[in-house]
Amino acid sequence: QVQLVESGGGLVQPGGSLRLSCATSGFTFRLATMSWYRQAPGKQREWVARHRGSTNYADYADSVRGRFTISRDNTKNTVYLQMNNLKPEDTAVYYCKATFVRTDYWGQGTQVTVSS
Q: In terms of CB atoms within 10 Å, which end of the chain has fewer, N or C?
């Protein structure tokens, strides 16, 4: 079955960096669109970044463009989110999503807290 497991979250000071990972299995990773979303307390889940496997195209939400980078390793079936210059408003649970054959699959999330 399809599995997505996020890791790499934690507590970081403003201006710091974290790299999230999402290890996957159960589908053809290189053909999937991989996305990161986040959900802050009391807010709706919001899209952060997306990487289309077939075209190597990536795009970002305005709030993170220039600070976050999405990448993937098709040999490891893993997608990453490098987060730099973190701000308190980046605090949220971060979720990985795979879209494959018009079906979405979600991970369980990893907490990122940006605080001094």
A: N
